[in-house]
Automatic annotation (TrEMBL):
DNA-binding positions: 133-229
Organism field: Brumicola blandensis
Pfam families associated with the record: Response_reg (PF00072), Trans_reg_C (PF00486)
PANTHER family documented for this protein: DNA-BINDING DUAL MASTER TRANSCRIPTIONAL REGULATOR RPAA, REGULATOR OF RPOS
Any one GO molecular-function label of the UniProt entry: phosphorelay response regulator activity
Protein name as it appears in the record: Proteobacterial dedicated sortase system response regulator
Record domain Response regulatory: where: 4-120
GO cellular component terms given for this protein: cytosol; protein-DNA complex
Modified residue annotations for 4-aspartylphosphate: D53
Keyword Transcription: yes
Amino acid sequence: MAKKIALVEDDKALRDNYISALNQQGYDVSPYANRPEAEAAFQQALPDLAIIDIGLEDEIDGGFAVCQMLRSKSKTLPIIFFTARDNDFDTICGLRMGADDYLTKDISLPHLLARIAALFRRTELMNQPLEQADLIVSGHLSIDQKRMTVKWKDVLIELTVTEFWMLHAIAKHAGHVKSRQQLMDDSKMVVDDTTITSHIKRIRKKFVQLDEHFDRIETVYGMGYRWKVQ
């Protein structure tokens, strides 16, 4: 069955171009021109992945509201911001709201398709049978790869799909430094350095909110990141 992608974009020409390109890849695309239209549809059924522009018609930050609404309904549904706004403020805001990726409209179509495919590959792993090898335990940390759940001191920490796989890549080999390229390879991501840094900061913050003394994710300057062993 074709994967269902919601495309929330107010520019008709761009919307039509991407509908055509995504259809050619075998995706079932549902387009929406504004926030009310998209949110009404999402109240009825959720897509398998959402691509959202930030500015929607007369709402400068309408896409942020759509993202928040989707994330409240599903913690793991892949969400991509696809926008002309490439400043750090909007990127960080988008990631803080739970988006899995933030792309600017100047990237190539193959690049966009690669990111979509990577997110689908990761979510599909959730449907595979659970095996002992899929469990990672390191001190107070426990990761269930198949269910995509993370616990710290037996308390569940809610992570997005991208955050989960980035943490998994670091914690799987505790004590070893993972370069940014290795993080991308291990977690099947295709992102830039700024996006990786933003994700790491978000992951740390979620642990610190639970445990103010949390210090296990270490930045090794000039090299990458590692999960410190106790």
